[in-house]
Write a structure and sequence with these properties.
Blueprint (H helix, E strand, L loop, with lengths): L1 H15 L5 E10 L3 H20 L3 H5 L8 H9 E13 L4 E12 L7 H10 L4 E11 L7 H12 L3 E2 L2 H17 L3 H7 L9 E16 L2 E15 L6 E14 L4 H13 L9 H18 L1 E8 L3 H12 L4 E8 L5 E8 L3 H11 L4 E7 L2 E6 L1
Parallel strand pairs: 4-5, 4-6, 9-13
Antiparallel strand pairs: 1-3, 2-3, 6-7, 7-8, 9-11, 10-11, 12-13
Length: 382
């Protein structure tokens, strides 16, 4: 326990250092010449730049042994990141491999919220996820048509480059398209468009706010006091996997406003933006989301593969072929039913097209992709 604590404290101390960026060149290669190969080669070049930028002796200097993760993964996911980069050259070599060389500015630690270039690089590499923000607000004595915190959360999300979708506008758009589908006889398509808005987003940020506001007197001066607690949950709607779960303890926040509406808004803005406490804020939640994405980009994201009426031998072959791919970290059988559906979970850096190619080859093209989202693929018999 003492050794584990020491390791955690050492990692935190390393991450706390503020250092200048180091400019290095990184080289990445990937088999093939298609869009997938280009993306993989660029990622490998970034990883190579990070290894060079933070120094190959970083782990040995810590005198920590028996790391569960290899050096490449730890340094890329935890100790270094690219704040900006420029592609110097890209080509397909004589062996048909795609090669990318970049010039990159590398910093130690994890990207801070105010390092917008680094954050936008991470978000871009994650495919610019579409974000749905849901807020349930219960402030005693304060009634509003729209939650006061919703605009603050959206503002912070847009500031770091997240693509925020509006449920109201999206519903109107889908309703218009659905009416057109119904008019031209496509009833099934019309019904499909009426599904939950969550099917059109990649990540859901839910926030439950409880609190109260009262007028107080301090040294003969009237002011307001808001008592607020926040509960955040960040999840992937297609799989239900929870990315971040954080309960921020109740805070009593003083405000110069005595009006309940103005005072509560003032307190929420300062709390959400980390003006009261950076650890107890929406800023810390967004930081955890980015940190998770950095890890997924390096170690791989968890993707669910759903198969309808697949035999156990064929499913075993799919799992074996996936596990043999060098970009796949883990393959787990979550559920099997040869008459209904079976579910496996894959932790991988492979994109959807590559996973589909492996499944087709493993099943001799007997299964086809029927439905897909960022973290969920459904296969059915041909």
């Amino acid at each position: 326990m003492k050794k584990t604590t020491s390791i955690i404290l050492l990692i935190l101390s390393i991450l706390s250092f503020q250092v200048k960026a180091v400019k290095v060149e990184g080289l990445g290669e990937a088999a093939g010449s298609g869009p997938g190969a280009r993306e993989q080669a660029l990622t490998e070049a970034m990883r190579d730049a990070i290894r060079q930028g933070i120094g190959v002796d970083l782990v040995s200097q810590t005198q920590i042994t028996n790391f569960m993760l290899d050096y490449d993964r730890v340094t890329t996911a935890a100790f270094g990141y690219i704040s900006s980069y420029k592609v110097l050259s890209q080509k397909v070599n004589k062996d048909g491999d795609y090669t990318v060389r970049i010039s990159a500015d590398v910093k130690e630690g994890s990207p801070a919220k105010n390092d917008l270039a680094a954050l936008k690089t991470v978000i871009s590499r994650k495919g610019s996820p579409r974000v749905l923000i849901e807020v349930e607000e219960n402030i005693a004595g304060v009634k509003t048509r729209t939650p006061l915190a919703e605009s603050v959360l959206k503002e912070l999300a847009k500031e770091i480059g997240l693509q925020v979708i509006s449920p109201k506008l999206l519903s109107r758009s889908r309703s218009r398209r659905g009416r057109r589908d119904a008019l031209i006889g496509r009833e099934n398509v019309s019904k499909a468009r009426s599904q939950s808005v969550m099917s059109k987003c990649d990540i859901v940020i839910s926030c439950v706010i409880n609190g109260s506001f009262k007028e107080v007197e301090v040294y003969g001066m009237k002011s307001g006091e808001a008592t607020i607690s926040l509960d955040f949950e960040v999840s992937y709607p297609d799989t239900g996997a929870v990315l971040v779960q954080q309960a921020l303890p109740t805070k009593a926040i003083m405000s110069s406003f005595t009006d309940p509406l103005q005072g509560t808004r003032d307190a929420l803005v300062r709390l959400m933006k980390g003006k009261v406490s950076e650890e107890c804020s929406a800023v810390s939640v967004y930081s955890k989301i980015i940190a998770n994405w950095v890890t997924e980009l390096d170690l791989g994201a968890k993707v669910e593969l759903d198969f309808t009426k697949i035999s156990k031998p064929m499913l075993d072959k799919v799992m074996k072929d996936l596990q043999e791919n060098h970009t796949v970290t883990n393959v787990l059988l979550r559920e099997f039913d040869g008459e209904l559906y079976s579910l496996i979970e894959v932790e991988t850096r492979l994109n959807t097209n590559k996973i589909v190619d492996i499944v087709r080859a493993s099943t001799d093209s007997k299964y086809k992709l029927d439905k897909s989202s960022k973290y969920y693929l459904q296969f059915v018999p041909k």
